[in-house]
Every structure is written in C-alpha cells, then in structure tokens.
Design brief:
346 residues; alpha+beta; four-stranded mixed β-sheet; two-stranded antiparallel ribbon; 9 helices; 6 strands
C-alpha cells in the first residue's frame, strides 16, 4: 500500500475511536465523578492514537503488507503494548467507578467496552496478537464483574472479541497475499533474467557463427572447389583457420581484435599457439578485462617461441599465464618465455 492508503486508514481509526469515546461525554445524568470520566477518556484517546501512529525501528529485509512501509515493520513497540494493557485495566474500571451504580449499564458506563475493543483491534493490526487477546479477555472479565455476564455480552463484549478476531484474520490474509506477491515478483524477476541471459547467449552464438563463417568460409569453399587437393600454402591457411576457430571455442573471453591479430601474426610466423580459458577472467570488470587483453596482445607481439601456451586458470592473483617453448641449439626443448598477467591490473 502507498503512504496515502496508510494515512487514510489511520484517519479512519482515529475518527472511529473518537466517535466511540464521545459516548462517554454525552450524558443526560452526569456521572458521580466527571473528572475521573474525562481522565479515562483522555487516557484512552492518547493511548489509542499512539498505537495508531507510532512506528517501530527499521527492518530493511521486508515490506510491511498492511502499511506498505519499506524498511519499517508495523509491530507495535513493547512500551505501547504495555500502555494498551494498562488502558484495558484502568479505563473500564475508572469509567464504572466514575458513573456510579445507577449508570453502570448506560451508554456512558459501557462506552469503554466497544472503545477498548477497537483499541485492541488496532493492536492486533500492529502485530501484537497476544497482547490484543489478553486485553479483550481482561476487558470481558471486568465487564462481567461490573455489569454481569449477560449484560457484558449484550452491550459490547461480543463485538470487541469479534473485532479482534476479524483483525487477526484480515492481517493474516494480507500477510499471505503480500508473501505470495513477493514470491511471484521474485519468480517474474528470475524468469526475466533467464530470458535476458538466453537472448544474450543467442546473440553470442550468432556472433560466433558469423565469425566462424568469416574465418573458415573461404577455406572450406576452396577445399570443396579443389576436392581436397590443396597445396602447401592452402593447407597452412586451413590449419591457421582451424586454430583460430579453436581459439573462439576454448578461449573467447581472452580474445579481442588486438589479441586475434597478435595470434594470427604469431601463426603466420610459424608458431603453434594453444589457447585455453578456464575462468581466469571471471569476476573482472570490462575495463579490467580490456587491460588484461592489451597486456596479452603485447606479450604475443614480442614472443618468438616455436610453441605458445596461453592459459587463463582460476587463480586469486594471476589472470593469464603465457608459456613459450622452443628447440635450443643442443636440440633440447626448453622454456624460453614465461609471462604472468595479474588480475589486479592497477
């Protein structure tokens, strides 16, 4: 609910409780102790309006389904709940003591039964069910003591119990509706995210297919035209195209235009290059990935090894490792390049 709905409900609660309290002030025969009657009415109104308007502390994990407040519960503070119980004890007894025996069952004597019942309906809405039920039970016992059980039931005790029960039922239904709405919203959000991810994957697949056709299309066309009889240059071009396609499949996160150009240049020099991405760039921002790729392209541009192995493994500090191996003058295979590109590029 919006703040306007909350304000409307609060105004209705104030107007209704004020109307009920007015019954204590309209009399043809004055009570024996008018000041005590007025004090009981004032104490009731102040406590009731405190219970209506006073908010509790922050709770950012949920939205209150009754008031619609984001970040605040509608739970009545403990001190206000104690004050409401004090009303249940003091106001009815003070009223009947003030009016005296002849007026116990009149409107000015029994106004507190309905009024206190309305107060505890508010307490129930403010998420204090045990306090609300305790209050109306205390009220019913007091009414039965002062005016008798039959008169208490006939003059408002049943209505007070009914108000609190209906308030609890409605609060539970609204809470359930709010929970279902939140669950539905979460499901809709998850479905939207899934659809967005699927659309992104489709776009990525289309891009990869177009890139693959651009790389392998001319080679395949020439292979079909020559019926597989390719010369050395054509075979070399086919091998380079195959390795470039393998890069796209096994290490697409490592590639941008500069890295692809550096890989193509290395292969044109006769270098055998293997690219493998195992998640080394996961968790990096777009800017950090761009810096890692720029450093990778610079390493490849300076490399003159016979074979290059580029691996992006999951590591806390290292994003990409480049290893170069060549045949030494003595015929032994040795490592002549070892470069580690850190994840933290700043």
């Amino acid at each position: 609910m919006t703040l306007r709905v909350r304000a409307t409900l609060s105004v209705l609660a104030v107007a209704f409780t004020a109307y009920l309290a007015a019954g204590a002030l309209v009399w043809t025969t004055p009570p024996q102790y008018p000041a005590l009657q007025l004090g009981a009415v004032a104490f009731y109104l102040v406590t009731t309006w405190v219970c209506v308007f006073w908010n509790s502390g922050p709770a950012p994990d949920r939205e209150d389904p009754i008031t619609g407040d984001l970040g605040h519960r509608s739970v009545l503070p403990s001190w206000a709940a104690v004050l409401a119980l004090a009303v249940a004890v003091l106001v009815p007894n003070a009223t009947w003591l003030a009016v005296g025996s002849p007026l116990l069952a009149t409107d000015i004597g029994t106004w507190s039964i309905g009024a206190v019942g309305a107060l505890f309906a508010v307490v129930m809405v403010r998420r204090r069910p045990w306090v609300a039920w305790t209050g109306v039970v205390v009220l019913a016992v007091e009414a039965a003591w002062w005016i008798g059980p039959a008169s208490a039931l006939a003059l408002g005790a049943v209505g007070s119990l009914l108000w609190v029960g209906v308030a609890q039922l409605l609060t539970g239904l609204v809470d359930r509706a709010a929970s279902d709405t939140a669950e539905l919203t979460a499901l809709q959000r998850a479905a939207s995210e899934w659809l967005a991810s699927q659309e992104g994957m489709r776009r990525e697949r289309r891009t990869q297919v177009q890139r693959a056709l651009a790389l392998a299309g001319p080679v395949l066309t020439r292979t079909i035209e020559a019926r597989g009889r390719l010369d050395d240059d054509e075979r070399r071009a086919a091998r380079i195209a195959e390795e470039a396609l393998r890069d796209e499949l096994r290490g697409s996160a490592l590639l941008d235009e500069d890295v692809r150009a550096a890989l193509a240049a290395a292969r044109e020099r006769g270098t055998t290059v293997s690219v493998l991405d195992e998640g080394g760039l996961d968790g990096l921002s777009a800017g950090e990935r761009a810096v890692v790729r720029a450093r990778l392209s610079a390493v490849l541009a300076d490399a003159d090894s016979d074979r290059l192995y580029i691996r992006a493994a999951v590591h806390d500090e290292i994003a990409v490792t480049v290893v170069g191996r060549s045949i030494a003058d003595d015929g032994e295979d040795e490592v002549d390049l070892w470069s580690e590109i850190p994840r933290q590029t700043s």
